[in-house]
Design goal:
Blueprint: H1 3-16, H2 23-33, H3 40-48, H4 50-60, H5 68-87, H6 89-95, H7 99-119, H8 136-147, H9 156-166, H10 171-196, H11 206-230, H12 237-254
Helix pairs in contact: 1-2, 1-11, 2-7, 4-10, 4-11, 5-8, 5-10, 7-12, 8-9, 9-10
């Protein structure tokens, strides 16, 4: 991997981390298009680069991270994800680099996203009005939904958003809660990978990780603001269609 490829992957990560389209899936497919071998370092890079994206959340939502109640709810939401992620770490890591799994997950996830928007419980009405109003029970259940995203291509954002809306949480509220939940989730995933693969970061690879993370940070800020504005007047159907189109396109190109 060179710096140009690191920058490209940083852009992809920044754009896709918080959209319901799967950042990990896009990183895997982009790496394939760039002919980047799926080495252990590249797999770790695809995890570490997410630090830039969560830094964007910390900058934009720093006040909420000073709220004790919010922190407790994030901890509760992280419990099922942490247990499942730690237990299935080796299996999840083996999925990284598997284009077929990503393509199928993108396509099926797109169909679910469209179906849920058309037939599911997506009306805001009398629902939870803000991320702070998410109950402890809802937080735990959202964590279970998020754990499904251990499969690359599913999308952590899509899983939490669909799960949250199914629980009666308003669109904007679950989107913001999903942003916040990304911080402990990605930080834990990166920390676990570093413990399991301490040699993945070295004096040679660290500059590539830092450049990719910086780019993803800058792009993620724009993506977060875009999504918050987008959902005020639009549904997630367009993202579902996008996922299906990308899956078909990559199926034709890669496979």
């Amino acid at each position: 991997m060179d710096f140009i490829q690191s920058i490209i992957l940083g852009i992809v990560e920044g754009i896709t981390e918080f959209l319901p389209v799967s950042s990990t899936g896009h990183l895997i497919l982009t790496s394939s298009l760039l002919n980047i071998p799926h080495t252990d370092f590249v797999k770790s890079f695809e995890i570490f680069i997410q630090f830039g994206a969560i830094l964007a959340v910390l900058i934009l939502y720093w006040k909420l991270f000073l709220d004790k109640e919010i922190l407790i709810k994030l901890a509760i939401a992280f419990i099922p994800t942490g247990i499942i992620g730690f237990s299935l770490y080796k299996i999840a890591k083996s999925f990284l680099g598997n284009e077929q799994i990503v393509i199928w997950a993108l396509a099926l996830g797109g169909l679910v996203l469209i179906a849920f928007e058309l037939f599911g419980n997506t009306k805001d009405g009398d629902q939870t009005k803000s991320a702070k109003d998410v109950t402890y029970k809802q937080a735990f259940l959202i964590g279970i939904f998020q754990a499904i995203a251990i499969i690359p291509g599913v999308s952590r954002s899509a899983a939490t958003i669909i799960g949250g809306q199914a629980l009666g949480i308003a669109r904007k509220s679950i989107v913001e809660f999903s942003f916040l939940l990304a911080v402990p989730t990605i930080a834990a995933a990166s920390g676990l990978d570093l413990i399991k693969n301490p040699t993945s970061i070295s004096t040679d690879t660290l500059p590539l990780i830092l450049v990719g993370s910086l780019v993803s940070f800058l792009v993620a800020i724009i993506a977060i603001k875009f999504l918050l504005k987008f959902i005020t007047t639009n549904t997630f159907v367009s993202f579902g269609i996008y996922r299906i189109v990308v899956a078909i396109a990559f199926w034709a190109i890669i496979l």
